[in-house]
Write a structure and sequence with these properties.
The protein has about 550 residues and is α/β, with parallel strands linked by helices. Helix 2 crosses helix 3, helix 2 crosses helix 5 and helix 4 crosses helix 6. The longest helix has 15 residues. It is globular, with a radius of gyration of 23 Å. It starts with a strand and ends with a strand. The relative contact order is 0.11.
Amino acid sequence: MQTITTKTQAFTDQKPGTSGLRKKVKVFQQPGYLENFVQSIFDTLDVPSGATLALGGDGRYYNRHAIQTIIKMAAANGFARVVVGQAGILSTPASSHIIRKYQTFGGVVLSASHNQGGMNGDFGIKYNISNGGPAPEKITDTIFEKSKIITEYKIADIPEVDVDALGEIVFDGGKFTVEVIDAVQDYADLMQELFDFSAIKKLLASGFKMQFDAMHAVTGPYAQEIFVNRLGASANSLMNCVPSEDFGGGHPDPNLTYAEDLVKLLFAGEKSPDFGAASDGDGDRNMILGKNFFVTPSDSLAVLAANATLVPAYKNGIAGVARSMPTSGAADRVAAKLNIPCYETPTGWKFFGNLMDAGKVTLCGEESFGTSSSHVREKDGLWAVLFWLNIIAAKQMSVEAILMAHWAEFGRNVYSRHDYEAIPTEAANSVIAHIKGQFSSLPNQKLGSYTVKTCDDFSYHDSIDGSISNNQGIRILFTDGSRIVFRLSGTGTEGATIRIYLEAYDPDTKNHHLDAQVALAEMIKIALQISQLVEKTGRVAPTVIT
């Protein structure tokens, strides 16, 4: 097996964000761009003899090309084996499971998550470590430093692999092997171990109607195997379940804006299904809907924590809960009642990995439609959907009734997120600078019916590895526990996205029926007043409201 060393020029823009390196497909198609980043990953690793690499992606455009390149580069960089999902496809939670189940050295995940696909869309790549979770910042920072000085990459001169056919392909007398696996079966088996499939199957056979939208993305085959083949759901309860390289021309982000077809079905009055759910491009996010009812991701995490013992995998209770800083405090109230810890971390799933590995938490979640547990080290969309179905089967209550009972017990953390996407970077930075410029004057100010208590730029000290993460989001905290959070997001590929998170706690059941935008109207006005966003960006309305 011949190894070819190719001279290359370094790129200056290969800094991984919270979920790896994401760029337009056309950027990745530049000569050497993909190869440089992959070589920078491998140069960062101390690959032991006999090491295995897991490999797969969300099936978007350029996935197949990247798979072949990475297989050849893994062979040239000391890996003895690559385990790849059939057709080059692996959902992100399935990738994490495969890394853990097959005890691989690590894995390369090819995904731009919920970003649009196609030849004019986005592509992404990230490295996951042996625990199945995203590489921590100390590794991604090293990868970036390597990428700035790289002068050559190594690639093996081997034929392309037929990734559509299950089985092993052996090269060079067994020195290098590629195994194409049925990751759908592996993942479905794990779900069946965690949840009460017999109870869910009985629920679905009782006349209970569900609708799942895979958004033309990676979870389609998984949904077919789990919901139809194993749980007996009707085939027409699934929609958009054939993966597409451009996600059917849509935006595979499971929220009220981009999952519009599903939302219309669930908000069609009495004829609506009882339960609706959607997942995103790579299968790690989820949206939960009831009949004419939307569950915020923050409330979803809190409900799962409060009802965890109804699920076989968590029947003995949970060790703790973790949430990202912008996620509402609803889970905190559940944790307090259960007398378990609740951790507040920066946005980015890698921060939960240390806590789970140390046995500190079992459930974790982010307001950006990501929820999961210690069964893997990634967000897991279908896991969350099954968790909800398990709870509904056990409680024999509707989604809305479950939420109303939960709010009556814990109070409601009224919550919403407003996204202003593709803002020119200079204008976005100006907004953030303006808010920070008020840090000294905002405390004790009365804004409408709210009084500012403190404001800061959130920093996190990891109690497990001692790392410190600064500048994780601006918090405006009010005396009654309400708050506004501003963040610049790093998951887009054009301009910048400003996210505004709004939260108000209300224990009064008489108000629990109110639409979040109505209940938060004054808070929204205050956020725009503090940020001067309209004046500085020209944007008069958010791109997405969730």
